[in-house]
Fold each of these.
Amino acid sequence: MSEKTQPKISDAKKPTSTPKTPQEAWQRLRDGNERFIAGETLHPHQDAQRRKDLEHVQKPFAVIFGCSDSRLAAEIIFDLGLGDAFVIRTAGQVIDNAVLGTLEYAIDVLGTPLIMVLGHDSCGAVTATKNAVDSGELPRGFQRDLVERITPSVLESKRKGLNTLSDMVVEHTKQTASRMLDQSRSIAAAVSKGDAAVIGVFYHLDAGKAELVYGHGPWFPERS
C-alpha cells in the first residue's frame, strides 16, 4: 500500500485536551502504552499546527525521567507528540543535582502534574552495578559514579532476597522516586498539596508493557 492510499488516522481518535491532574496524566500515558503494545499508535500532536501552537509556550502533562537506553524512547512507547512530555534521561535513571533542578523546573514553572521514573529490564547500568557488587571491582572513569549511585538499590534488593536483575531495577526505580521526594522540597510540597504525584514504572522490553511499581501522593493509581 502506497503512502497516497494509506488510510488517514481519524482526528477524532487523537487526544485533544491536556491532562490537568496526576490521574488524568497517568491514564493518558497508560492509554498510549496500550496502543503501542497493540500496534495501533496514533502519533498525536506531530503536525505543523502543533509546532505552531508550541512556538512560544509549552505545557507538558508529564515528566518522564528514564534511562538513556536506546530501547526506552518515552515518546514512542507512550505514543506521545510534541509538547506532551518533559523528558529527562540518564544511564540507569541516576539522579543528581542537575536532574533535580530540571524536575523542579517542570513542577514549579511548567506546572506539570506527574513525574514518572522509568526503569526497564536488561538495564546496562544496573547490570554493571550488580557485577561490581558481586566482584568488588568498580569500573573506571565517570562510570564509577553511576555505579556508586546505584549500589544502594542493588544492596537493598539483595537484603530483601530479591536477586534477579529485574528485581534490582524495580528496587532502583522505587528508590529513585523516593529519593527525589526526600531531596526536593518543591517536589515534596507539590505532591503533599495534591498538585502532583510521583510514580515508578518498570518497562518490559519484549512485551512493551509499562508496569506501575511505585506511587506516592494523596492520589495513588491502581496497579494494572
Amino acid sequence: MDFLNLQEIHHTYFTKNSATTALSDISLEIEEGEFVSFLGPSGCGKTTLLSIIAGLLEPTEGIVSLEGNQVETSGQNIGYMLQQDYLFPWKTIEENILLGFKISGNINDFNRDYALNLLEKMGLKGVEKQYPKQLSGGMRQRVALVRTLATEPKLLMLDEPFSALDYQTKLKLEDLVSTTLKSFGKTAILVTHDIGEAIAMSDRIFLFSSSPGKLHKTFVIPEELRDATPFNARNHEAFSSIFQTVWKELESLEPTNKY
C-alpha cells in the first residue's frame, strides 16, 4: 500500500464571474520515507496541490489518502517548513519549539526533553532561553525544523524553505534537512523553483505543466545521487546531465522562460 496516494485530483477556483481550473487529473503515489519534489513553471498549481494534500483545501474532485485513510482533517499528521520561519518573536526558542505540544495539550517532561534533544542535534544547544531576533536566518530555520519534527509528523511539507537564505547557508541547510529526515525515515514533499535543489535532495521529481496544472513527467534520481548528501550530489559527475535534462523539459513547458 502506498503511503500517500492522490487519485484524479481536480480543482477549480470559482468566483462570482469566473471559474479557473488550477489542477486537472493529478494522480501519483509516494512511498513511506521517500523525498520528492514538486517542480514546474509559475501557475502550475504546486501550492494548491500542497494545500489539498494537507487537507487545508478540499479538491473539486478526487481523493487524497494517507496510509489508506482519506485526508479530510486539516493538518492531520502533517508538518510544515516554510520560506518564513514564523517563530513568535516574543517567545523564547524553547517556547517556540514546544508550541505544537502546547496547542495539543501534550506538554510534559518527556516531550520537552525530546524537543530540547532535537535542538542539540541541530547544533543549537544553549539557545533555549534566547529569542528569535538573537539568531541568524539559518539558525531560525533550524529552530523551525525542530518545531516541525518535535511532534513527529508522518509527512513533511517543505514549501521553498531555503529560498530566503544566502547560498552558503542554503547549501548547509539542504544537507542538514536531508540527513535529518533520512535518519528519522520521514516522508517529505519539497516545493521548489530550484532545479538543482530538487535534484540534490530528491528521490523523485514530479514536473508539472501549467494552465491548468497537470503532472507532465516524473524523473527518478539515480541511486548514486540519492545516497549522497545534497552538497556531494551537486558535485557528482551525473548531476550536470540530469540538470540539463530537467531544464530542457521545464523550458519546453514555458517557452518564454527567462531564467
